Amino acid sequence: MDKAWMHIGDRMHSNDYASGIKQFLNLAKAYASGRDCIRCPCRRYRNRTFHPFSVVEDHLFIAGIDPFYTEWIFHGEEETLPDTTSSDEDGDAAYNDNDYIDDVDEMLDDIRVGSFMDNSGRTKFSPDGGQERHTSSAPLHLNFDDLLDDARQPLYPSCTEFSKLSFIVKLLHIKTIGGWTVKSFDMVIKLLQAAFPHALFPDSYNEARRLQRGLSFTYTKIHVCPNDCVLFWKDNADKDVCPKCNASRWASSTTNQKRLPQKVLRYFPLKLRLQRVWKDFNKKYEAFAQDPRNVRLALASDGFNPFNNMSKPYNIWPVLLVPYNLPPWSCMKDPYLMMSLLIPGPKAPGNDIDVFLRPLIDELRELWEDGIQTYDAYKGEMFLLRAALLWTINDFPAYANLSGWHV
Predict the structure, then answer these.
(1) Long-range contacts of residues 304-312, Cβ cutoff 8 Å, at least 24 apart
(2) Is 231 found in the same domain as 210?
(3) Quick check: pTM over 0.85?
(4) Is residue 259 pLDDT above 50, yes or no?
(5) Is 294 exposed, middle or buried (0-12, 13-18, 19+ CB in 10 A)?
(6) Are residues 138 and 188 in the same domain?
(7) Which end of the chain, N or C, is less surrounded by CB atoms within 10 Å?
(8) How many folded domains does the chain comprise?
(9) Do 358 and 372 reside in the same domain of the chain?
(10) SS3 (DSSP) at 363
(11) H helices within 153-270, ranges in order?
(12) Under a CB-based contact definition with an 8 Å cutoff, are residues 354 and 401 in contact?
């Protein structure tokens, strides 16, 4: 089916666009099997909510169809592909599978859009307003089709609450919050398999982790020299000995595996001082301030003993980024705090904390100097996102370490 009409700008006066909408709705009605509502693929809702056909038609004319929704998987296109045959029962089952895509579909939509972002070029944006184009070779999400299949498949034939994907994601979340060990997670999986033999549970925790990798729930471990000289990262990634002090890399690889308590330290900004800094920054970097979507960040860090026992010499430093574009009552809430680094060890990093901060500093420099292509879900377009680190939030001992002024 020709889908060039999806990119027509003058939607209200284009016969081709109206004809394309008619073809799309006819396909969706045939696929809906008597249902009154379908997923709305407009730029605003992007298949996240169900609406009547008349409302969907209005949205497609007013807001336009999502330009990235080129394969109409939620509206029956799979059943219309050539060289495929299916019975009426298979078609009904395929439609019912779509009902089990719950809130996880928002994550899948971000991953789908992210594949376009990774494949697109990146624009270098300098503070003086100059632009330079270069391409990116970042890999696409190769297992998106598998994730989509898991999201469309019910946990068991008569299940109406969970898909295979959403159940496993929620189970992994409970494991993290409850502090389950891998062994206990496997035991629960075996019990569920015995109680519900027709359900599509993973065989083990290792199989469930495949979803974590597909949904980008990952982190990277970086070894550091025992004397805090360098990180075994980038040019030093394959070295077993510190290039400065010749200490063994693996001397620092044994860490206490006891689970750490989940604590978040909240700080509250000084309103008037932030307003002054914000305005001065906008005057100095007008190119950055022209786009309100560019992010202003604050960095917060401090050390604490996770075991609540000062007789155990252990120290851990979380490094958090706080987006100050949000209103004051939201920017310090848990959902918007970004854990960028976690520095564990038997002692505090001290003045050598700059060694540990190097991965974060490199990413912040990239966001400030080059920017990164980002998808604006509200406007349905790509834009160059840049970020600036304007503040640090610390007590005075931590401020001394971060600034390097401590003797």
Answers:
(1) 304/263, 306/258, 306/260, 306/261, 307/258, 308/261
(2) no
(3) no
(4) no
(5) buried
(6) yes
(7) C
(8) 4
(9) yes
(10) helix
(11) 164-178, 182-195, 205-214
(12) no
